[in-house]
From TrEMBL:
Organism: Acidocella aquatica
Signal sequence coordinates: 1-23
UniProt domain Thioredoxin: residue ranges: 40-182
Subcellular location(s) of the protein: Cell envelope
Protein name, as recorded: Thioredoxin domain-containing protein
Swiss-Prot/TrEMBL keywords: Cytochrome c-type biogenesis, Disulfide bond, Redox-active center, Signal
Signal as UniProt keyword: yes
Top-level lineage group: Bacteria
Family matches, as CDD domains: TlpA_like_family (cd02966)
Length: 194
């Protein structure tokens, strides 16, 4: 089964009410501190991710060069993603001093038609609507599940990754992101997608 088939099946199952899990069952405070559970790594060249804006403009991570980045793959039908996303929305204003940006990339098949109403209903105003309805970035990140988040320093090097949900709105995460502003060490290897 392809990743695209998994995404489609999961979206249909969620839409049909399959399973009893909901984000309402998990409070932001119940999620682990992202700074404590993310895997930190020697800097590597960031993966070649491609996605679009809500208006259909093609974007890559290079469009955000010079900024530390938190890049998150998520979907509106994913319970852990929905539980985690408010922590990104709360974190965004706290990162302005470090010039860091949060890039939540939705893999919802319906694209902006699913994400825009979700943002409105959850009062999310500080995050951009970014889209990958084909789920191509799941292949780029070599994952079959979401949420998955990567951290990229200002030089475009991936320095951390977390597969799964966490609370990103913590002092430790803010401190970590502030530390990514300076001149980073040279990347040790080139990212090679699996």
């Amino acid at each position: 089964m392809s990743r695209r088939s998994i995404i489609a099946a999961a979206g249909l199952a969620a839409a049909a009410g399959w399973g009893k899990f909901s984000a309402a069952q998990i409070a932001e405070s119940d999620l682990p501190d992202a700074a404590e559970v993310m895997t930190r790594m020697a800097p590597v060249i960031a993966p070649p991710m491609v996605f679009t804006s809500a208006k259909g403009k093609r974007l890559t991570l290079a469009d955000y060069a010079g900024h530390p980045l938190l890049v998150n793959l998520w979907a509106t039908w994913c319970g852990p993603c929905v539980a985690e996303l408010p922590s990104f929305a709360s974190l965004a204003p706290r990162l302005k001093a470090s010039d860091a940006l949060i890039l939540p990339i939705s893999i919802d098949l319906e694209g902006a038609a699913a994400v825009a109403p979700f943002y409105t209903s959850h009062g999310i105003t500080d995050l951009p609507i970014l889209l990958d309805p084909n789920g191509d970035n799941m292949n780029v990140l070599n994952t079959d599940g979401i949420p998955v988040t990567i951290v990229i320093n200002a030089a475009g090097q991936m320095v951390a990754r977390l597969d799964g949900a966490a609370n990103w709105n913590t002092g430790a995460v803010v401190e970590f992101m502030h530390g990514l502003r300076g001149k980073p060490p040279a990347a040790k290897k080139i990212f090679v997608p699996a």
